Amino acid sequence: MEYEIGPEESVSTAVVRAVSAVEGRDPCSLRPLADVVDPAALDSLFDPRDDGTPRTGGRLSFVYDDRCITIDNGEYLTFQLLEDRSCDDRDQESSDSCVR
User: Fold this and answer.
1) Distance CA 33, CA 43 (A)
2) Helix (H) or strand (E) holding 11
3) What is the DSSP letter of 34?
4) Using an 8 Å Cβ cutoff, are 47 and 62 in contact?
5) Number of domains composing the chain
6) Residue among 1, 7, 77 nearest 42 (CA)
7) Could you tell me the sign of the dihedral formed by the alpha carbons of 56, 52, 60, 74, in that order?
8) What are the pLDDT digits (tens) for 53-70?
9) How far is residue 67's CA from residue 33's CA, in Å, rounded to a whole number?
10) How much is the average pLDDT of 18-39?
11) Halobacterial output domain: which residues (predicted)?
12) Rounded CA gap, 41 and 47, in Å?
């Protein structure tokens, strides 16, 4: 699945929203994202530079809630079940208040 991250949406919030939407679960019922990755650090990787210019070209993959999550350029988020494909395979191809 692909999810477009909104211009005012943090990357960490987008991860939780996208996974909860696909699973049909309340975001607060998911495992805390902070158990897997520091949400503030994740957001800062894709935040604009100090002078306001956007960062470009970044890609990060990690496992969250039995899914391989890949964030491209802080604009798109893709994920799939681990049983379908590993995060390593995906990388070689080159994808709120409840965020704790």
Assistant:
1) 12
2) helix 11-23
3) G
4) no
5) 1
6) 77
7) negative
8) 888 888 999 999 889 999
9) 12
10) 94
11) 8-75
12) 10
Residue 24 lies in a domain: yes
Amino acid letter, 32 = P
- The DSSP-derived string for 39-73 is HHHHHHHHSPPTTSPPP-S-EEEEEETTEEEEEET
Range of the domain at 72: 2-93
| Cα dihedral 45, 20, 5, 1 sign | positive
Using DSSP's 3-state secondary structure scheme, residue 19 falls into: helix
Structure token digits, residue 42: 């994740």
Instruction: Using pLDDT thresholds of 50, 70 and 90, give the confidence band for residue 87.
Output: low
77: which 2 tokens? 């988020």
Pairing relation of β-strands 2-4 and 59-64? unpaired
Is residue 45 situated within a structural domain?
A: yes
Whether the full predicted model's pTM is greater than 0.90, yes or no, is: no
Tell me the HSE value of 19 on the side-chain side, using a 13 A CA sphere.
25
Indicate whether 99 belongs to any domain.
no
Within a domain: residue 100? no
